[in-house]
Write a structure and sequence with these properties.
Elements: E1 3-11, E2 14-20, H1 30-37, E3 46-50, E4 58-64, E5 69-70, H2 74-88, E6 92-96, E7 101-108, E8 111-117, E9 137-141, E10 144-153, E11 157-162, H3 171-179, E12 189-197, E13 200-207, E14 211-213, H4 217-229, E15 236-241, E16 244-250, E17 256-261, E18 266-271
Parallel strand pairs: 2-3, 4-6, 11-12, 13-15
Antiparallel strand pairs: 1-2, 1-18, 3-4, 4-5, 6-7, 7-8, 8-17, 9-10, 10-11, 12-13, 13-14, 15-16, 16-17
Amino acid sequence: MATINAYKMDGLGNDFVIIDRRISSINLTKEEIIKLGSRTNIGFDQIIFIEKEKENSFPITIFNSDGGEVSACGNGSRCVAYLLGKKLNATEIKLKTNNRLLNAKIIEDFQVQLEIGKPLLSFKDIPLSKSINPADITIKINNKTFTGGFCVNVGNPHIIFFVKNCFEHDLNKIGPQIENHDLFPEKTNVTFAQIVDEKNITVNVWERGAGLTKACGTAACATAVAAFKSRLINNEVDIKFKEGFLNIKIDKTDNIFMTGSVSKVKKIDFEI
C-alpha cells in the first residue's frame, strides 16, 4: 500500500481532495477515486490534481466522485488557487483546465476571485444533440413537463430552470434523469433557480457526476448568465447556496467573474 499526501478544502460546503503532482507522479484508478469519494470514506465532490507549471500556468486535472474526468470546477479551482497562492506567496494564480485558462486572484484571506471567461451559448458548443433554441428548452420527466430551460456552457454544460420555489422539486429523483437526458451528449449539470430580487438568486443544484451538492461554482456562473441573458437581473448578482453565496459579475465583454469564500487548508493522508 502507498501513502498519499493530499489536502482537503471546500467552497461553501462543495468539497474537494487536492493532490499536488508537481513533485511526484501519483495516479489513481477510476475504482480508487470512486472508493475514496464515498461519504463512508474520505468523501468529496471532486478530486483535483495539480500538475507541473507550464507556460506560467498550473494545469489541473479534475475527476468527479463517480470517477469521470471533467473540464471545469469553479469552487475547486478557487480552492486550488488559494492553496497555490499560500504555497508560492502569490496573490494571483493562473490555472489551466483542458479547455480554459483561469485567472484567479486572492483578494483577502479565504476570499478568491476567479475569471472563468465567456459563456458558450450555441447548441453545438454546449453541446446539445440537436439544433434547438438553447434558451427555451422543454424536457418531460415522469409525465411532468419542465419548460423554459436555459442551456449554457461555462467550461461544462448546464441547464437552468427558473421556478417560484427551487426546493419544491426533488432533485434526487429528477436530477439524474435530466442529467442523462438524450438531449445532452456529454450529460449536464442541473439547476433550479429562484429569483429573489434583481441582486439575489437562490439555487438548488444537481451536479453532473457528483449528485446533489451544497454548492457549485460553475452552476452559479451559468445561472447568472441565464438570468442576465433573460433580462431577469443586471450584470452582477449573489447566487445563494445553503452555506453562503457566490458573487457573479459579467463584464461588458461577457467575461464571468466569480468571487467567494474558501475554507482553511487541511492536510490529509490516505492509503491506496
